[in-house]
């Protein structure tokens, strides 16, 4: 038998067949029942061929749609064939036949060749001699992968059927004729060998199609079809599902299959040309041989046109998936004709009394392996099969559509066997249905099994419009939960039917069903829950009729008990037979219900209304498809009938003859171009030469950025910063120093010019520094690229630039990015346009991977970018601000944006002539014409009518007033406005009228007709007619160009308009064509937008709203009726965007804006009229930059050769009737301009300004209904599917939140829409792209200006990132040495020790940071200072802000943790594999003489830095840090280790000194507190950390410096000992360390300049340190340092090259010489001054290198600034400010104790309150306070005199000085009473003794015998306000006796 299981019969199948057979015999009145086995296996002779072969073989007809297979019960199959042949008794395959493994390695897999690589195609083998073994036949196999070829095979004829389709053995035996391989025993194996690549079960019956025979020439050719089997009729039973596609299954098929919305051919059915037919009796009555044979019936045959049609799967070629479809499909066009024999009779009516198996005798049982054979099938199907009477016709009433259920049951006995087809499974569409009825019916799929359609299938459209609404049961629980529902709330089929009826019944006669509207009805019904008991199937028919009865006959219900096909057949038959005069009585909708006794209901809706069916069919076409359809109709001449109709005027005259008559009548005279009535004629030559004397009231619209644009630009910038800060490493702003950009625009020449103008006007190229002033105008066009065929070369050049400039941040702006988002794979040349280009450019790998490229997509309708697969993160979206608060104080003259919402709400104004209109008269005319021409697309009819209307309006207003009554009032008003306004104006200004004609051919026709009519009527100089095509430049007649030049005062004769804005004031009709409006801005003179052609083909949100977006603009606030304004009206702030227009005085539009741009495009500036004419190019912080451009505020006169107008940088100008076209030379002209009439009344004239009104939009009824939903109770356009490239992800979802802002809508669409297969995002990456942003805002709101401003402030921010604020303060006083003896300017490079020794030490701390510290007394004070400073602290303890200046970082700057670049990432960032454990911890213990105890420090040393250290033999114990020798001369080596004490600045401290050291090897150690160690480890994993002991956690910087110095000295001793063992002299070891602050950023070298000043240049820290280290006799210096930079250094002649003075910030310290001088470890401030005074008094040598300076960055956080003094026990949440006087208190008092270190409190107290301790010293420089061994800051108005108590110390001469006070701070044993007696004090001088505790305080008083000369009181003892465990400091004050 072939296969082991081939003949098995499952018991259930057998029982079912047996049951059917018995039941059929009982019901049959004659004939014996067929034996069961005959039904299952054999077939009686007289059966014609099987229905399977009648059904369409889809492998041809779906060439373009191979994947759109049909699912039956959710099981995928590849084509209809698959399902049909699934039933065949093919047993020639092993189990699981098509689960094939991969082909063997190395074998050929090419289609048409066998695996051995031999060609098997008939075209190749036709002339080959093929050896055919005996008993074999050559047959042709067809493969779906190459449907155009037949493959030659040799098959054993025993396995092939005879001519009756019988006696074929089961199984297979075949040979390969290519390679000769023999003995293939399974067809699966054989099909693999010949590379058929089948995705379904291979079957010989399915794929072996033809016998191959030799023709007369001996060539092999295709012979007869292989007749596999005869016709078996299909079984039906209650539990069986038909294998035909049900509505649900066929839709589900799309889920797994084709989601391509682009129909490669609008007519996918016509794939069987007549040439394929066979003649005579051998031809199948169902046409082409591929469709199988039917033996001829003994009935009449008719030559009807038929082609099988598969519902949904074939028709709806753009279903994206079962749940989300928008019903776009190709309309069926008449296919190729095939002869077909059809019965002439109607179907037999089925009565309720019929049994489910009444015709089982004619229906075979279920076939083996039938996929749907399962009792739990998804959709139960009816069990009755109604036979088609083959011989005797049945009478059937054709009167009522409901007649099927009203007939008497005919006699069953008259049914004659055999029955050829199971009725109900097929529907034959009547011939000439469209011609006879004028209707192309639309079948809306409901639930259940649809039949197969034959015959005139071109006249039926199958639409899946509502099918998703019925699929609630397929929703998953997650979706239901998000809707707030459970599965129990899903609706039954009966409820769905009733809901559908209710919905259809309430639709108006001019409305069509909308999927989104019905979905919301279904959702509400589900949410409400059942209102009563469920509807039973038996109740359904009468309930349904009752629902339909309210429609007044518009909706009828047809109940069929057989199948849906019956009902459809009956309805179509009635339609075709109804006389045309009675067709008005036909219903618009017929809802066909099929009920069965099994309890299941099926239904569908047949749309028969003329308007409804046409609108539904047209709405299924995509824009490309309907434009193709229109082209087809125009090219093939189908419109000729229509065209001839319109050759006559409405009065019946021949239009052309009439026009010629008028032309002859006026001879050479034409209507006066302007300043004259339409009846005034002049000679044409005079008219051509007529020019206006002056332009209209011209205002030079200074280029401006308005607050919302600024706000949006800043939002974009902050989003870019957020990307950089996100930690994803996707954007490193710190590396960029320039900004460059490219703008991609849709393929429109006008849009390119418009964008180039914006760039020129904004001056952005100059502000970004990418073009210089002279070339910016010429080079602007390089920065705008059209997405056309040339885009690739330009993008390649751009991407080369991106790669070559890694330190430039490029921004690729994709403007109007919603226009073409077809994927590059599915994109093609479509209707003359390239598609998929944007995807190839914006989503190409180079763009995605470039780390210095941002992509900014800009769109008014971003919905298609916001699907589930969006490439843009929702966080990276910036939406235009939606300000709802109308500013009361705003002037009514100010401009506000008037957008789509405002147009909708304007209908509530109640004005007589609304600005959103529907031309009802026009619609009535259209309706009549549509009924007359059912074959033509409605847009063709609308276009012809529109052309006639405009032509007749022109005639009516000039030569033929009798035509007035035949023109719609709307058209007449617009044309009258167009013609009359120029006549009232002395400059000829008028309005623009925009007519939108999407089809280019129709637009050209309109232009030709209107121009012809205009010229013949003599109006050629009155107004222009322009074709606005994206593919062409603006073409304007010479005389109109001259008029525009005259208005501009432009002398350049070659100037022509390039943008629509250039046509400002020109009276013209612009016929705008193209698939979509592309974002072009229209002038203010645009008054009317005629959108009457935009009808039901535009039922998508983007498609519809972008058309109405043409009318959006800025209007004067006062024209919006206040009383009528709804509360939520979107009003914008006064200075919203468009500024100075004609509507507002300049002073009312003053705006606080940032610095203006360097406006290279020489604009006429009305200087001072608008605050700085400002465009921000300042920093993000809105502070002016120090590098301001001198050209930024000057006035430049525009040369006429470049008449560029300077408007505000917005996408549109508000329309106005005073036509402002900016000009430079005539900006002072003051003519008032023509007033435009108000919408309802004439506007009152104003003195100098006209109001700006909204444009008037005239819509079709379909568009009007969606834009004026409140008026009609319809859904608004916002609820439509957002874009043709996306689909709804679920049939039920919450309503669109269109009342909310863009962000909420974005989240909605991201949840509920999904990209279609042809969408660029369909196979996008799983995660959004990190460097992609989206800017969305309404049409014409000013987005271009916003993103150009964004580029500007982005550049400013990058400059700010490359700049740093450094302190810029002059030194307080220069050295006291005599300037006249200063050495010559070019001093020595290094100091001489002896010279330095001779210099006096400058005791005065001249560093500006000590401006508010106590001056130090010197015996020779600076002449300019009497010893005290005049500064006072403004508030207690608060230092005023210090001066800073922004400077550009150089190559040698130090950086913080935010800096990343390729060179230093290994320095500051951990290696990818490195872990923190790669650092080693080392304890280092030494004994500190100062502390008197052992100190343990911890080093954290990264592995790479270990060579700098010496470890013990075991390698675990740290012994010392290596030090070089003084004598080492290595050029690149830096000898001194660098220590940086840092706290609180792990991110902001400038600890990356890689660039400062030029990448050279160096030893850098960060000294950190113990509690901060983890933070510093995290940010600086490659740095050595020195961790201070925990006891220093709350200490100041003095402790860190102390420990650095102690450690360094101890290490020096260790190194000396270690190297001494190696023979090195002890004094040869390098004794210096560098101590550097964490805020040192840049270093400069100063050279004397040519003019006596000094020149500074940036140098590296390495060069500075190496220079100092190379100083001769360096070991004799105790400290070396640099001076602080200030801007004043460059302006004056340099002082002496070296000074002996205080050193700060960066010091090179000799730890050997300073061994006995320590930093005060307790100090928080002034520790450096204190140390240096002590070092100097010890006689040590300090040297400052004056030709080096250091810049210090202002870092507002970290250091001791972060130390907040607060009460220890906080009782309140709010922080309490504690004043400085509370920092001390009496001992043991109840004073509030503070949480702060005692030393910190003391220093802060002395700094702020010393005037209380030393009243006599206040402002008294002659009598300073004596301070022994320490320097404490007592505030700027108290001078201190430092004295050292050490023997042999160097002190200031104090002879004759009377001191006003004495300060003893923690004095040691060197301070003795005899020392104090050397000093003289004023009477009443005060004393302050500070000690660690009270006992030492008393001991000190006694030891120093202070009571002898000083008087103490008990109440003069104080302590710092700490609690005792914080160890407060105590001090005692006394008065000198």
TrEMBL record:
<feature type="compositionally biased region" description="Basic and acidic residues">
    <location>
        <begin position="1127"/>
        <end position="1155"/>
    </location>
</feature>
<dbReference type="InterPro" id="IPR046927">
    <property type="entry name" value="GREB1-like_C"/>
</dbReference>
<feature type="domain" description="GREB1-like second">
    <location>
        <begin position="359"/>
        <end position="647"/>
    </location>
</feature>
<dbReference type="Pfam" id="PF15782">
    <property type="entry name" value="GREB1_N"/>
</dbReference>
<dbReference type="Pfam" id="PF20691">
    <property type="entry name" value="TAGT"/>
</dbReference>
<dbReference type="Pfam" id="PF20267">
    <property type="entry name" value="GREB1_C"/>
</dbReference>
<dbReference type="InterPro" id="IPR048659">
    <property type="entry name" value="GREB1-like_2nd"/>
</dbReference>
<keyword id="KW-0472">Membrane</keyword>
<comment type="similarity">
    <text>Belongs to the GREB1 family.</text>
</comment>
<keyword id="KW-0812">Transmembrane</keyword>
<feature type="region of interest" description="Disordered">
    <location>
        <begin position="326"/>
        <end position="374"/>
    </location>
</feature>
<feature type="domain" description="GREB1-like circularly permuted SF2 helicase">
    <location>
        <begin position="703"/>
        <end position="1369"/>
    </location>
</feature>
<dbReference type="Pfam" id="PF20692">
    <property type="entry name" value="cpSF2-GREB1"/>
</dbReference>
<dbReference type="InterPro" id="IPR046926">
    <property type="entry name" value="GREB1_N"/>
</dbReference>
<keyword id="KW-1133">Transmembrane helix</keyword>
<feature type="region of interest" description="Disordered">
    <location>
        <begin position="77"/>
        <end position="101"/>
    </location>
</feature>
<feature type="domain" description="GREB1-like C-terminal">
    <location>
        <begin position="1775"/>
        <end position="1937"/>
    </location>
</feature>
<feature type="domain" description="TET-Associated Glycosyltransferase">
    <location>
        <begin position="1537"/>
        <end position="1755"/>
    </location>
</feature>
<feature type="compositionally biased region" description="Low complexity">
    <location>
        <begin position="237"/>
        <end position="253"/>
    </location>
</feature>
<feature type="domain" description="GREB1 N-terminal">
    <location>
        <begin position="81"/>
        <end position="229"/>
    </location>
</feature>
<feature type="compositionally biased region" description="Acidic residues">
    <location>
        <begin position="81"/>
        <end position="90"/>
    </location>
</feature>
<feature type="compositionally biased region" description="Low complexity">
    <location>
        <begin position="1176"/>
        <end position="1193"/>
    </location>
</feature>
<dbReference type="GO" id="GO:0016020">
    <property type="term" value="C:membrane"/>
</dbReference>
<protein>
    <submittedName>
        <fullName>GREB1-like protein</fullName>
    </submittedName>
</protein>
<feature type="region of interest" description="Disordered">
    <location>
        <begin position="235"/>
        <end position="287"/>
    </location>
</feature>
<dbReference type="InterPro" id="IPR049100">
    <property type="entry name" value="TAGT"/>
</dbReference>
<dbReference type="InterPro" id="IPR048657">
    <property type="entry name" value="GREB1-like_cpSF2"/>
</dbReference>
<feature type="region of interest" description="Disordered">
    <location>
        <begin position="1123"/>
        <end position="1252"/>
    </location>
</feature>
<dbReference type="InterPro" id="IPR028422">
    <property type="entry name" value="GREB1"/>
</dbReference>
<feature type="compositionally biased region" description="Low complexity">
    <location>
        <begin position="1212"/>
        <end position="1240"/>
    </location>
</feature>
<feature type="compositionally biased region" description="Low complexity">
    <location>
        <begin position="352"/>
        <end position="365"/>
    </location>
</feature>
<dbReference type="Pfam" id="PF20688">
    <property type="entry name" value="GREB1_2nd"/>
</dbReference>
<feature type="compositionally biased region" description="Polar residues">
    <location>
        <begin position="1158"/>
        <end position="1175"/>
    </location>
</feature>
<dbReference type="GO" id="GO:0001822">
    <property type="term" value="P:kidney development"/>
</dbReference>
């Amino acid at each position: 038998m072939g296969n082991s299981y081939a003949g098995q019969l499952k018991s259930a199948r057998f029982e079912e067949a047996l049951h059917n057979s018995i039941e059929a015999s009982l019901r049959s009145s004659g004939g014996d029942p067929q034996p069961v086995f005959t039904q299952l296996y054999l077939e009686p002779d007289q059966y014609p061929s099987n229905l399977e072969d009648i059904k369409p073989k889809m492998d041809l007809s779906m060439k373009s749609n191979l994947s759109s297979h049909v699912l039956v019960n959710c099981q995928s199959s590849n084509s209809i064939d698959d399902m049909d042949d699934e039933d065949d008794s093919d047993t020639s395959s092993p189990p699981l036949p098509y689960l094939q493994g991969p082909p063997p390695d190395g074998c050929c897999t090419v289609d048409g060749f066998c695996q051995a690589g031999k060609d098997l195609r008939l075209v190749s083998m036709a002339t080959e001699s093929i050896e055919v073994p005996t008993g074999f036949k050559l047959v042709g196999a067809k493969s779906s992968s190459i449907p155009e070829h037949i493959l030659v095979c040799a098959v054993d004829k025993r396995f092939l059927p005879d001519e009756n389709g019988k006696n074929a053995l089961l199984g297979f035996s075949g040979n390969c004729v290519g390679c000769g391989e023999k003995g293939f025993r399974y067809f699966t194996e054989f099909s693999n060998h010949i590379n058929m690549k089948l995705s379904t079960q291979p079957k010989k019956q399915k794929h072996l199609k033809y016998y191959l025979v030799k023709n007369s020439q001996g060539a092999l050719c295709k012979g007869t079809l292989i007749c596999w089997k005869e016709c078996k009729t299909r079984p039906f039973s209650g539990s069986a599902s038909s294998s035909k596609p049900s509505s649900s299954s066929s839709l589900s098929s799309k889920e797994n299959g084709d989601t391509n919305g682009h129909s490669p051919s609008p007519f996918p059915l016509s794939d069987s040309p007549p040439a394929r037919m066979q003649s005579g009796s051998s031809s199948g009555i169902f046409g082409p041989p591929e469709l199988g044979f039917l033996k001829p019936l003994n009935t009449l045959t008719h030559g009807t046109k038929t082609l099988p049609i598969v519902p949904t799967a074939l028709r709806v070629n753009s279903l994206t998936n079962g749940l989300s479809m928008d019903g776009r499909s190709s309309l069926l066009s008449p296919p190729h004709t095939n002869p077909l024999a059809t019965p002439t009779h109607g179907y037999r009516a089925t009565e309720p009394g019929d049994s489910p198996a009444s015709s089982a005798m004619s229906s075979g049982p279920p076939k083996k392996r039938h996929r749907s054979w399962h009792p739990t099938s998804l959709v139960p199907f009816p069990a009755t099969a109604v036979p088609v009477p083959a011989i005797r016709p049945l009478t059937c009433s054709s009167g009522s559509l409901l007649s099927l259920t009203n007939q008497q049951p005919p006699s069953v006995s008259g049914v004659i066997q055999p029955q050829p087809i199971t009725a109900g499974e097929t529907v034959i569409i009547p011939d000439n249905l469209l011609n006879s009825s004028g209707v192309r019916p639309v079948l809306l799929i409901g639930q259940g099994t649809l039949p197969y359609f034959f015959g005139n299938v071109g006249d039926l459209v199958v639409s899946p419009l509502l099918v998703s609404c019925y699929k609630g049961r397929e929703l998953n629980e997650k979706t239901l939960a998000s809707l707030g529902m459970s599965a129990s709330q899903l609706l039954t089929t009966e409820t769905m039917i009733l809901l559908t009826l209710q919905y259809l019944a309430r639709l108006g006669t001019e409305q069509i069903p909308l999927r989104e509207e019905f979905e919301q009805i279904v959702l509400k019904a589900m949410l409400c829950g059942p209102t009563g008991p469920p509807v039973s199937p038996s109740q359904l028919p009468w309930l349904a009729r009752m629902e339909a009865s309210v429609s007044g006959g518009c909706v009828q219900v047809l109940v069929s008990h057989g199948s849906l096909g019956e009902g459809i057949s009956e309805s179509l038959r009635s339609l075709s037979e109804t006389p045309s005069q009675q067709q008005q009585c036909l219903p618009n909708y017929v809802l066909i219900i099929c009920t069965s006794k099994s309890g299941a209901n099926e239904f569908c809706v047949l749309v028969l209304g003329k308007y409804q069916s046409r609108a539904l069919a047209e709405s299924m076409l995509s824009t490309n498809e309907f434009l193709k359809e229109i082209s087809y109709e125009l090219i093939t001449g189908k419109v000729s009938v229509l065209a001839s109709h319109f050759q006559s005027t409405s009065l019946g005259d021949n239009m052309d003859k009439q026009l010629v008559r008028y032309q002859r009548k006026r001879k050479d005279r034409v209507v006066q171009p302007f300043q004259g009535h339409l009846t005034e004629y002049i000679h044409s030559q005079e008219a051509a030469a007529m020019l206006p004397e002056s332009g209209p009231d011209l205002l030079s619209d200074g280029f401006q950025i308005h607050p919302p644009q600024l706000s949006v630009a800043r939002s974009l910038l902050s989003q870019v910063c957020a990307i950089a800060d996100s930690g994803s490493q996707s954007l490193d702003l710190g590396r960029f120093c320039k900004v460059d950009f490219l703008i991609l625009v849709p393929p429109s020449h006008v849009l390119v010019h418009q964008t180039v103008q914006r760039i020129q006007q904004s001056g952005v190229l100059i502000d970004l520094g990418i073009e210089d002033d002279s070339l910016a105008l010429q080079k602007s066009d390089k920065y705008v690229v059209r997405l056309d065929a040339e885009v690739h070369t330009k993008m390649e050049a751009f991407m080369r630039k991106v790669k070559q400039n890694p330190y430039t941040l490029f921004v690729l702006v994709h403007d109007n990015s919603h226009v073409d988002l077809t994927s590059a794979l599915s994109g093609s040349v479509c209707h003359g346009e390239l598609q998929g280009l944007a995807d190839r450019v914006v989503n190409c790998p180079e763009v995605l991977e470039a780390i210095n490229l941002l992509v900014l997509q800009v769109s008014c309708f971003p919905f298609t970018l916001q699907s589930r697969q969006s490439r843009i993160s929702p966080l990276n979206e910036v939406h235009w601000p939606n300000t709802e608060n109308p500013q009361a104080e705003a002037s009514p003259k100010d401009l506000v944006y008037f957008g789509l919402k405002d147009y909708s709400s304007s209908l509530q104004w109640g004005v007589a002539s609304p600005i959103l209109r529907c031309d009802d008269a026009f619609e009535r005319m259209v309706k009549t014409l549509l009924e007359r021409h059912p074959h033509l697309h409605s847009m063709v009819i609308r276009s012809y009518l529109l052309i006639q209307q405009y032509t007749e309006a022109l005639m009516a207003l000039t030569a033929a007033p009798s035509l007035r009554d035949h023109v719609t009032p709307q058209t007449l008003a617009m044309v009258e406005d167009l013609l009359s306004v120029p006549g009232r104006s002395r400059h000829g200004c008028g309005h623009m009228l925009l007519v939108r004609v999407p089809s280019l051919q129709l637009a050209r026709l309109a232009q030709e007709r209107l121009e012809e009519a205009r010229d013949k009527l003599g109006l050629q100089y009155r107004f222009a007619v322009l074709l606005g095509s994206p593919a062409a430049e603006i073409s304007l007649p010479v005389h109109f160009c001259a008029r525009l030049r005259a208005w501009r005062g432009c002398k350049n004769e070659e100037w022509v308009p390039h943008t629509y804005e250039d046509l400002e004031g020109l009276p013209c009709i612009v016929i705008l064509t193209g698939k979509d409006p592309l974002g072009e801005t229209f002038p203010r003179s645009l008054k009317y937008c005629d959108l009457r052609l935009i009808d039901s083909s535009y039922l998508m949100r983007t498609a519809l709203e972008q058309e109405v977006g043409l009318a959006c603009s800025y209007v004067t606030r006062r024209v919006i009726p206040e009383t009528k304004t709804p509360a939520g009206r979107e009003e914008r702030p006064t200075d919203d965007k468009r500024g100075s227009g004609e509507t507002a005085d300049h002073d009312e539009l003053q705006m606080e804006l940032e610095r203006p741009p360097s406006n290279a495009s020489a604009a006429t500036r009305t200087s001072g009229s608008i605050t700085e004419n400002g465009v921000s190019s300042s920093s993000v912080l809105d502070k002016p930059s120090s590098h301001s451009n001198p050209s930024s505020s000057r006035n430049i006169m525009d040369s006429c050769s470049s008449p560029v107008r300077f408007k505000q940088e917005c996408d549109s100008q508000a329309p106005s009737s005073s036509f402002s076209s900016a000009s430079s030379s005539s900006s002072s002209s003051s003519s008032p301009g023509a007033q435009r009439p108000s919408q309802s009344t004439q506007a009152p004239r104003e003195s100098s300004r006209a109001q700006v009104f909204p444009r008037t939009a005239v819509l079709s009824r379909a568009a009007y209904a969606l834009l004026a939903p409140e008026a009609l109770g319809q859904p608004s356009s916002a609820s439509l599917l957002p874009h043709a490239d996306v689909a709804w992800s679920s049939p039920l979802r919450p309503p669109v939140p269109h009342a909310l802002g863009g962000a909420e809508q974005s989240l909605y669409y991201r949840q509920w829409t999904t990209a279609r297969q042809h969408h660029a995002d369909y196979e996008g990456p799983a995660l959004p792209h990190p460097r992609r942003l989206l800017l969305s805002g309404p049409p014409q709101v000013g987005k271009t200006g916003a993103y150009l401003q964004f580029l500007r402030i982005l550049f400013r921010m990058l400059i700010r990132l490359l700049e740093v604020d450094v302190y810029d303060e002059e030194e307080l006083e220069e050295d006291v040495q005599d300037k006249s003896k200063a050495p010559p300017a070019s001093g020595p490079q290094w100091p001489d020790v002896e010279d330095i020794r001779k210099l006096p030490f400058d005791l005065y701390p001249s560093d500006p940071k000590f401006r508010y510290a106590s001056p130090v007394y010197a015996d020779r004070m600076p002449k300019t200072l009497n010893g005290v400073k005049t500064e006072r602290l403004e508030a207690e303890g608060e230092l005023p802000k210090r001066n800073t200046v922004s400077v550009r970082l150089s190559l040698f700057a130090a950086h913080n943790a935010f800096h990343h670049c390729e060179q230093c990432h290994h320095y500051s960032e951990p290696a990818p594999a490195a872990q923190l454990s790669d650092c080693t911890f080392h304890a280092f213990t030494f004994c500190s003489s100062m502390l008197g105890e052992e100190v343990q420090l911890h080093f954290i040393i990264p592995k790479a830095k270990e060579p700098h250290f010496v470890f013990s033999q075991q390698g675990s114990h740290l012994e010392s840090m290596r030090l070089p020798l003084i004598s080492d001369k290595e050029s690149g080596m830096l000898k001194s280790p660098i220590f940086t004490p840092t706290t609180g600045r792990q991110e902001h401290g400038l600890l990356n000194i890689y660039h400062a050291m030029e990448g050279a090897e160096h030893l850098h150690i960060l000294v950190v507190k113990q509690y901060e160690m983890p933070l510093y480890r995290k940010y600086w994993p490659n740095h050595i950390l020195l961790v201070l002991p925990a006891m220093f956690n709350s200490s100041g910087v003095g402790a860190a410096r102390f420990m650095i110095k102690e450690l360094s000295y101890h290490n020096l001793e260790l190194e000396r000992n270690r190297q001494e063992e190696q023979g090195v002299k002890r004094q040869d070891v390098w004794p210096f360390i560098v101590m550097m602050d964490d805020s040192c950023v840049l270093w400069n070298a100063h050279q004397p300049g040519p003019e006596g000043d000094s020149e500074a240049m940036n140098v590296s820290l390495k060069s500075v340190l190496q220079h100092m280290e190379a100083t001769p006799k360096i070991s004799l210096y105790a400290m070396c340092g640099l001076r602080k930079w200030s801007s004043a250094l460059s302006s004056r002649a340099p002082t002496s090259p070296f000074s002996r003075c205080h050193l700060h910030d960066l010091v090179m310290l000799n730890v050997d010489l300073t061994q006995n001088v320590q930093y005060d470890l307790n100090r928080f401030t002034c520790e450096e001054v204190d140390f240096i005074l002590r070092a100097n008094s010890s006689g040590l040598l300090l040297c400052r290198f004056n030709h080096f300076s250091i810049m210090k960055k202002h870092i507002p956080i970290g250091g001791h600034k972060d130390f907040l003094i607060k009460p220890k026990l906080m009782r309140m949440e709010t922080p309490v400010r504690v004043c400085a006087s509370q920092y001390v208190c009496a001992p043991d008092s109840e004073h509030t104790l503070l949480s702060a270190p005692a030393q910190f409190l003391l220093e802060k107290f002395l700094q702020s309150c010393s005037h209380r301790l030393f009243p006599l010293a206040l402002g008294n420089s002659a009598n300073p306070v004596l301070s022994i061994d320490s320097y404490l800051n007592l505030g700027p108005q108290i001078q201190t005199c430092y004295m050292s108590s050490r023997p042999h110390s160097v002190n200031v001469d104090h002879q004759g000085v009377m001191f006003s006070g004495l300060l003893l701070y923690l004095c040691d044993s060197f301070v003795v009473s005899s020392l104090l007696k050397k000093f003289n004090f004023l009477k009443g001088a005060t004393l302050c003794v500070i000690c660690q505790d009270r006992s030492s305080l008393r001991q000190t008083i006694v030891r120093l015998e202070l009571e002898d000369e000083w008087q103490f009181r008990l109440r003069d003892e104080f302590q710092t306000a700490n609690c005792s465990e914080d160890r407060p400091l105590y001090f005692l004050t006394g008065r000198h006796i």
